[in-house]
Amino acid sequence: MAELLIQHGAAVQEPIWSAIVHGNEEIIKLLVQHGARAGESGKSTIVKQMKVLYMQGYTPEELSRYRTTIYKNVLECADALFTAMLELGLHPHSEEARLYRLPMSKTGLLPDQTLTPDACELISALWHDPVIPLLMEQRTKFYLMDSAPYFLDNIERIAAVGYQPTEADALRARTKTTGIYETRVSIGYTNLHVFDVGGVRSERKKWVHCFERVSAIIFCVGLSEYDQVLLEDPDQNRMVESLLLFDSVVNSRWFLKTSVILFLNKADLFREKLPRSPLENTFPDYNGGADVNKAAKFILWQFNQVNRAHLNLYPHLVQATDTSNIKLVLKMVEETISQNALREAGLV
């Protein structure tokens, strides 16, 4: 069983694989780890995509379990917008939007955990108010989950009676990862044992030693986070926090022979944001302007600089919510893991 820790090509021929197994099980671990503590690097979305692509997707019952989470995400997004509006001295134009009251996240759910009709109307009015574009221009000054536009654009569908979440909804549903979650998935001839863990530096010492023999780490970084702050610490930049977390992982004594697969996620948001929010505001040494390729290479260089242990680093530009993109990237990851296993066994 291949085990992959997530820190969020052509398949190897089966006869070759049989030469490097103990019994009938491949020995590979994969750890999945995200960067910033805010937990929106796309780490858990990658794991969800594995289920969609290689585990027959979600059943209707499994999708139904996301309903309450999505309702709460909608309410939290609306509260974040209204709070930021007040703090930045902006005011809704429409009379209905001015009726919005905080905290909607505490009052907007009925006892059966569905959205109240009033909440739906007020949230829709707030999201469509003319002041919102002005507010979103200042998005770097407040925390708002990246899936907010998606959920708020779909507020009428989500608030409808009998709402059933779609796979697209589930992929964007946001819950905090606490502890370690395991997923077993087969990609080609590679059986992966995936461990999805949180990214808080203070908690890493509690579990990091458990993965001494991990074969690869997938480290997820949200490219678009370069101008955002942490929810828990508004004085800390999320990209800087990701670099600190990456440093603590790749230079750990537990991962001296581990390959690192760096997912540079949210390339679409990154491309859209660069012209209006210069990367040099966060990294004064950068001089590539709004060129997305130069900007992505600069951020990759930042991560290479902290890789003092000189672990093998395999970077990929990804968009975690794009299933076709993730399918292609995971196939390349499977090939990387397979080739590394063969190399360690002396077969290539």
From TrEMBL:
<keyword id="KW-0519">Myristate</keyword>
<dbReference type="InterPro" id="IPR036770">
    <property type="entry name" value="Ankyrin_rpt-contain_sf"/>
</dbReference>
<keyword id="KW-0460">Magnesium</keyword>
<dbReference type="GO" id="GO:0005834">
    <property type="term" value="C:heterotrimeric G-protein complex"/>
</dbReference>
<feature type="binding site">
    <location>
        <position position="320"/>
    </location>
    <ligand>
        <name>GTP</name>
    </ligand>
</feature>
<feature type="binding site">
    <location>
        <position position="44"/>
    </location>
    <ligand>
        <name>Mg(2+)</name>
    </ligand>
</feature>
<dbReference type="GO" id="GO:0003924">
    <property type="term" value="F:GTPase activity"/>
</dbReference>
<dbReference type="Pfam" id="PF00503">
    <property type="entry name" value="G-alpha"/>
</dbReference>
<keyword id="KW-0342">GTP-binding</keyword>
<feature type="binding site">
    <location>
        <begin position="171"/>
        <end position="177"/>
    </location>
    <ligand>
        <name>GTP</name>
    </ligand>
</feature>
<protein>
    <submittedName>
        <fullName>Small G-protein GPA3</fullName>
    </submittedName>
</protein>
<keyword id="KW-0479">Metal-binding</keyword>
<dbReference type="GO" id="GO:0010255">
    <property type="term" value="P:glucose mediated signaling pathway"/>
</dbReference>
<dbReference type="GO" id="GO:0032502">
    <property type="term" value="P:developmental process"/>
</dbReference>
<dbReference type="GO" id="GO:0005525">
    <property type="term" value="F:GTP binding"/>
</dbReference>
<dbReference type="InterPro" id="IPR027417">
    <property type="entry name" value="P-loop_NTPase"/>
</dbReference>
<feature type="binding site">
    <location>
        <position position="177"/>
    </location>
    <ligand>
        <name>Mg(2+)</name>
    </ligand>
</feature>
<keyword id="KW-0547">Nucleotide-binding</keyword>
<feature type="binding site">
    <location>
        <begin position="40"/>
        <end position="45"/>
    </location>
    <ligand>
        <name>GTP</name>
    </ligand>
</feature>
<feature type="binding site">
    <location>
        <begin position="265"/>
        <end position="268"/>
    </location>
    <ligand>
        <name>GTP</name>
    </ligand>
</feature>
<dbReference type="GO" id="GO:0046872">
    <property type="term" value="F:metal ion binding"/>
</dbReference>
<comment type="similarity">
    <text>Belongs to the G-alpha family. G(q) subfamily.</text>
</comment>
<dbReference type="InterPro" id="IPR001019">
    <property type="entry name" value="Gprotein_alpha_su"/>
</dbReference>
<dbReference type="GO" id="GO:0005737">
    <property type="term" value="C:cytoplasm"/>
</dbReference>
<feature type="binding site">
    <location>
        <begin position="146"/>
        <end position="147"/>
    </location>
    <ligand>
        <name>GTP</name>
    </ligand>
</feature>
<dbReference type="GO" id="GO:0031683">
    <property type="term" value="F:G-protein beta/gamma-subunit complex binding"/>
</dbReference>
<dbReference type="GO" id="GO:0001664">
    <property type="term" value="F:G protein-coupled receptor binding"/>
</dbReference>
<keyword id="KW-0564">Palmitate</keyword>
<keyword id="KW-0807">Transducer</keyword>
<dbReference type="GO" id="GO:0007189">
    <property type="term" value="P:adenylate cyclase-activating G protein-coupled receptor signaling pathway"/>
</dbReference>
<dbReference type="InterPro" id="IPR011025">
    <property type="entry name" value="GproteinA_insert"/>
</dbReference>
<keyword id="KW-0449">Lipoprotein</keyword>
